[in-house]
């Protein structure tokens, strides 16, 4: 076989530097695990101690920015053309972004984090009630709005520039307003290399720790005789193989189906613990915990514990580590969220990404964490607290105090397995997307390549104890990326401002409204309903005559225009080609709408046989909202095209609009 002719969509400027850095870092972590871990830990500790304020201020800015957008004039802008529709149902969309955003961590930390806060020396002097409240409060803080705000800013920036500006779904595209065409050069490659390495390191460490939890659970449930590396290899090979198959099938199939199954399974487990656990206590503690979180929101957001020296190590190891972890994961999660969010409005995106996952996380952490603390005090006699230092096994130890513990243990392992696969398959998909600059279709061997690389390197590091070194590297990369995300905000605001002004531009003052010359014919049209054939006739005869006459007149003035005609549904458009900016397009299409029962039954209106009527609707090449043109005469249609063309020329002549109008030059609207 001649490998020179193997088809590939890899971009060499992104893939080769990324693989060199990824394999080099993993090699050092595997061959010299302790020295590498010590060096990276020192760097991480220096950043956490001396630059923790960068993380605090960055995450705070992300929250403030998204809340501002939620109530701003930009909130109704769509992530795509103005008439674009979401690709996935609301449930599937939420399921996929949730599975990608939290994944295995939701199971891993649901009992472990509250119990570790509850058992921490920082809160050791406090009464049980105070310790339990503090444990719930900080768990809410670490898994709440702040975490999802990081994902939200990255995902929103990516989806906005990809679907609104029709740029590649890549981190480099988020710098378009700042770098313009330079994003296609070395600067763009450097940004994508950084994103690819962050994504690979984050997924590798997460999957490595996920395998340890699965292996530990199987050992506790006596499925495997020991928690050994051999069984971890079997687990990784099986699950990554499934993930590769899922990734090959595409987001709309494998990833969506597994995410839906995951969410349903998680809800089932949640209800099981809620109903058979201390139900009244859990509902009450959730209610009080939510109020406590809201009351302390600003204090938590800005608290650096600078006056509490005893709490500083805890602050570095929890809050700052979490902010760094979420930021380092944001290229991967943001890219995946962006991939599935086309057609949503900015307001819909922010509400879904910020509120719904946060609320579910609060319910989940309350049910499991508060149940564990309640069991520890009332039933387990402090035994669960002793396992706080062993988070791999803590969930399964907790389930031993629930009915049907063996069944629920296996069910939890099943959920972790599916989370493992959904994290891996969406991660493989995202890595391939970055490495290929979002190529439309890649050969299957590339998906297999990323899956194999994930499996081999995670097992290698797991075997020699190098995962912690890689985790430190992942956390270190969060510092520069937090600055990059801040630049995303600057870039996004610049793009939104131009976008809003573009679509708010009114017609020229010279635009002439309807005259009263044809008022009788117009009245007849207004009170009649059109069927499909009459609208087709309007387009193919009256509109075509108007466009043809206008085309000839354009030619007489040295402007080349062409008429495009389409069927099913009938569409007609006049197009003027531009070399640098987007083409000017004015079109008319046959549109159907449903008429209310009231109109059908109204005696003082013309008869209508069914609840469907047709009308000719204008549309434009830049995706602006069109309108009904059925009452226009031929000359009025010509006039309408000309006023849009005049508007077009005014906009393209202004330098500030150059960025927006040339970003997708001469690409057809889908």
From TrEMBL:
The chain crosses the membrane at residues 12-32, 52-71, 91-111, 140-163, 190-209, 229-251, 263-283, 320-337, 349-368, 407-435, 447-467, 473-493. Belongs to the BCCT transporter (TC 2.A.15) family. One of its GO terms (molecular function) is transmembrane transporter activity. GO terms for cellular component: plasma membrane. It is a multi-pass membrane protein. InterPro entries: BCCT_CS (IPR018093), BCCT_transptr (IPR000060). Keywords: Cell membrane, Membrane, Transmembrane, Transmembrane helix, Transport. This is Transporter. It comes from the Bacteria. PANTHER family: HIGH-AFFINITY CHOLINE TRANSPORT PROTEIN (PTHR30047:SF7), HIGH-AFFINITY CHOLINE TRANSPORT PROTEIN-RELATED (PTHR30047). It comes from Chryseobacterium gallinarum. It is found in: Cell membrane.
